[in-house]
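quick q for whoever's on today - can somebody do inverse folding on this one?? i tried earlier but teh output was garbage lol. tokens:
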């Protein structure tokens, strides 16, 4: 396959691979690590947990943190420690990470497509000036 590529196309392959490495390094450095404490998608769960905690406070005037399952701690004063909220937040974080990677990949594809189109255009124009006399 590579033996049939002309010089412009070989240059495009080299530039594409180089850009891919550059975009991968950029994505690694800028990969999101900070996320919203209460993502929009999880607010309903947080509100439900708040309601449940309010009912708990009514039933027990001085509730202490309790254990739900062995090794699974839930603090009634912190609704974001509820396992349902944590699962929702982790799903939102995973979605944000995937969207970030897809955006970087799309920008890379658009960049190499533009470079290929520009190189093809320059080669087409150059061929126009070197017409065979006949």
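ok took a stab at it. sequence:
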């Amino acid at each position: 396959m590579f033996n049939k590529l002309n010089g412009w196309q070989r240059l495009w392959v080299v530039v594409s691979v180089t850009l891919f490495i550059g975009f991968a390094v950029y994505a690694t450095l800028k990969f999101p690590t900070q996320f919203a404490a209460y993502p929009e998608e999880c607010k309903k769960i947080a509100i439900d947990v708040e309601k449940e905690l309010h009912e708990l406070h009514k039933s027990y005037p001085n509730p202490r943190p309790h254990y739900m399952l062995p090794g699974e701690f839930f603090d009634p004063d912190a609704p974001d420690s509820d396992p349902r909220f944590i699962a929702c937040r982790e799903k939102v974080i995973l979605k944000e990470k995937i969207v970030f990677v897809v955006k970087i990949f799309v920008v890379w594809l658009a960049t190499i497509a533009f470079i290929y189109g520009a190189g093809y255009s320059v080669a087409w124009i150059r061929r126009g000036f070197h017409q065979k006399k006949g």
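fwiw The chain has three helices and two strands. also The chain has one domain: 2-112. so keep that in mind when u check it
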